[in-house]
Amino acid sequence: MSIVLGIESTAHTFGIGVFNDKKLGRKRLVHSRDVYRPTGEGIVPRKVADHHEHVFLPVLKDALAQAGIGLDDVDAIAFSQGPGIGQPLQFGCAMARYISAKTGAVLVPVNHCAAHIEIGMYDAKMKDPLVVYVSGGNTQLIVKDKMYRVMGETLDIGMGNLFDVFAREIGLEYGHGSELELLAQKHKNYIAQTPYTVKGMNVAFGGLLTYAKKHIGKYSREDIAYSVMHNAFAMETEAAERALCLTKKKELLVCGGVAQNTMFRNMLKTMLVQHKAKLGVPRNEYNADNGAMIAYTGYSLYKKHGKKATVPIEKAVPNPRWRIDQVKYL
Ligand code: FE2
């Protein structure tokens, strides 16, 4: 096997990637994507699925053109099976089944969170890291041995979700963490009463969100943005430090959408100095959701496990609540 197509459709991003093991250098891995951007509301599943359907052909054509291949050259189709939002996931799985039926390529289901870790380790060249996986829906501390083990996680919402909801509340157009970070950089004061909730290696962000929403108007948007981000990052850094001491790892990989935040990276870096451990961060194009991570992970799984890593066409259906510690093949 040499060419794997990867389809990503778990949330707002529709992406297609191609991993081609015959090509050397950066061109081994290409991808194309289109992101659904709601204005003034959260993600509406039907609207996201409609968006993905709308952009499917141009994204597919662009990915194939970048890879210099046609659909018939594809040996396997890796698809994001979960966790994620039902309707957009259903669309991605349906397209994977269709291409498989049309070309005869085998189907390899991929766990979205595992794909963030695998592409992160590949791109940041890490061998045995403690993983801090932070995105919209997830915040987890993970180590990989015979399985992916979750050492700690959020007890309520994901860190990205905290930032997105708060950003929308204060009227930022796309409600993204990156815009909130720009606002936070202009802060004057840290609000000392901002909640801080760490329970062992677990964290909780719900109280932080409620506090932030309640105090809009009482404090400046900049000060609240900074205090919320500071505490969320400090909470996760504290939990990560605990996991690092326990596992004695010398590498820490931060990946997922929120890993693009420089304030968080710097905080982790400062903590790691004391433990003489190294920070690994994949390039931003791989931290945001993308099809390349699905193609790469599907390739690795199929190379290692062969047919066992594949599913028959009727089983290529979404698994919206697929936890990373339930992944069988890695
Ligand atoms: Fe993601």
The major pleated sheet works out as: 5 strands, mixed
Percent strand equals 15-25%
Q: What is the assigned CATH homologous superfamily of the largest domain?
A: ATPase, nucleotide binding domain
In the CATH classification, which architecture of the largest domain applies?
2-Layer Sandwich
Strand order of the largest sheet: 3-2-1-4-5
| CATH class annotation of the largest domain | Alpha Beta
- The overall pLDDT, averaged over residues, is 95
Helix content: 40-55%
Order of helices and strands: EEEHEHEHEEEHHEEHHEHEHH
Radius of gyration: 20 Å
SS-derived structural category: alpha/beta
User: How many domains make up the coordinates?
Assistant: 2
**Span between N and C termini?**
18 Å
Hetero groups in this structure are: fe (ii) ion
Per the principal axes of the C-alpha atoms, what is the gross shape?
globular
CATH third-level topology of the largest domain? Nucleotidyltransferase, domain 5
Tally of alpha and pi helices: 10
Low-pLDDT stretches are none
Per DSSP E runs of 2 or more residues, the count of β-strands stands at 12
